[in-house]
């Protein structure tokens, strides 16, 4: 396993924290899905906070799980927050709006050398 998921709950049981670390590749999405499902089951109409400070890479399958978790939170009346994203993980989560954008509000796109992607070989 190249990833880790640690769970903690506050004393009131209203907030469940998931501390994620490592590389969340395609194979990690099942464990992430299970961890989110368990977090919602343990949280009594409170919130789930995912700390992704230790995540170096995240696959599209895992991002899909996070988006599903966000939808579950909206439907169930839970709070849902993704915090401490950095680097490429932050850029990806900003694009999906799971993570707030930086204050400079800059979008990142490839800079094509010849003016269009079709010109690059």
Automatic annotation (TrEMBL):
Gene3D superfamilies: STAS domain (3.30.750.24). CDD domains: STAS_anti-anti-sigma_factors (cd07043). Pfam families: STAS_2 (PF13466). This is STAS domain-containing protein. Residues 5-98 form the STAS domain. It comes from Paractinoplanes pyxinae. It comes from the Bacteria. PROSITE patterns: STAS. InterPro entries: MlaB-like_STAS, STAS_dom, STAS_dom_sf.
């Amino acid at each position: 396993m190249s990833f880790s998921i640690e769970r903690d709950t506050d004393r009131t049981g209203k907030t469940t924290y998931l501390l994620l670390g490592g590389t969340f590749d395609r194979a990690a999405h099942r464990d992430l899905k299970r961890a989110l499902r368990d977090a919602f089951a343990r949280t009594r109409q409170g919130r789930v906070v995912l700390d992704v400070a230790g995540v170096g890479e995240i696959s599209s399958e895992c991002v899909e799980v996070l988006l599903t978790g966000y939808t579950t939170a909206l439907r169930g009346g839970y709070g849902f927050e993704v915090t401490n994203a950095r680097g490429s993980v932050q850029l990806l989560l900003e694009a999906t709006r799971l993570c707030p954008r930086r204050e400079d509000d800059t979008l990142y796109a490839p800079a094509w050398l010849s003016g269009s992607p079709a010109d690059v070989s």
